[in-house]
């Protein structure tokens, strides 16, 4: 009899535990669903959210948002993801009750027409890992409460009208252990915004940061040397700002860096030779700055460089020696500098090359037949140099060639008759 009572008691306890579990899950589900419905109501008529409704003819009071469009739940019924990118949402985030959705791991509202500010209450999403609000009409500043998102690995606020600065307190302060700040951040994107000011040195404490994209915003001042601490960095995009001063030499220690874009700023001085240590580089843009001195000679030491621009600077000295065997090159722009060298000696054969511009430098030599081995070449611009010789037949047989500019040189001889066979040729510039 005693044994039967023990079994009954055990079963009763198990039923109570299950009841409490499902009651809690039901309560959480209701709270989350009600919060989502309140936000939906504030947005006006949104056809994309037609599935966000409470059941009408149901005896149960439980709302289950897990089947609603864009909503994902975990096994316990908690809302963990909201994925509504590019669905035409209009309205604001002001009635989004973040405090009722603290199980969110992912919030993707990219490419909509949301306006207003980013509420500071977003900081209660302490479990959030992924936040994408890019390509909306948001304004105001980045709330400091974002520093509470210690598990977030990606934040993207690009292509909005957000203003202000990047508050240094968003990042870890370098003390151990860090309990606040974006300690898990891997991808941070603020492209095409109105955010400006200096990049805080504290960003160098984000030891997992892999992608930093601040293109076409309003940042100024020096590039912080603390970026050299980001050993996981693979992409650094700072183009289209007002950065000034020199490139920190320790950028050359970032062995995983594949994409470095610094074009269209006010950077000056000599480009550190240490950039030649970046053996993983595939993209390097230095164009439209105020650089002087020599280009790093080993800029393609890793043999992976695809896209390289250093145009519109004051570079002098030789063409980087490593470019000769850099067979991966696809696009090269070095125009409007004072670079010297020999066109027939300092360049190799590039099977993928489509565009090269060496115009208005001090390049000598002649257009050698080996340029005819660059079978995908569409544009060859070498105007305003010190080139001599004649135009080889091999070059004019390139059937993809659309532009060839040899003007303001010392090219001699007659134009090859084969030029007339270039069906794609749109522009030909030569003294002859």
UniProtKB/TrEMBL annotation:
It holds the Pfam family LRR_14. Transmembrane segments: none annotated. It is a single-pass membrane protein. GO terms for cellular component: membrane. Residues 1-28 form the signal peptide. Residues 182-364 form the Disease resistance R13L4/SHOC-2-like LRR domain. It comes from the Eukaryota. The keyword Transmembrane helix applies. One of its GO terms (biological process) is plant organ development. It is found in: Membrane; Secreted, Cell wall. InterPro entries: Leu-rich_rpt, Leu-rich_rpt_typical-subtyp, LRR_dom_sf, LRR_N_plant-typ, LRR_R13L4/SHOC2-like, StomDev_PlantInt_Reg. Keywords: Cell wall, Leucine-rich repeat, Membrane, Repeat, Secreted, Signal, Transmembrane, Transmembrane helix. Residues 30-74 form the Leucine-rich repeat-containing N-terminal plant-type domain. Belongs to the polygalacturonase-inhibiting protein family. This is LEUCINE RICH REPEAT FAMILY PROTEIN EXPRESSED. It comes from Salix viminalis. The lineage of its organism: Eukaryota, Viridiplantae, Streptophyta, Embryophyta, Tracheophyta.
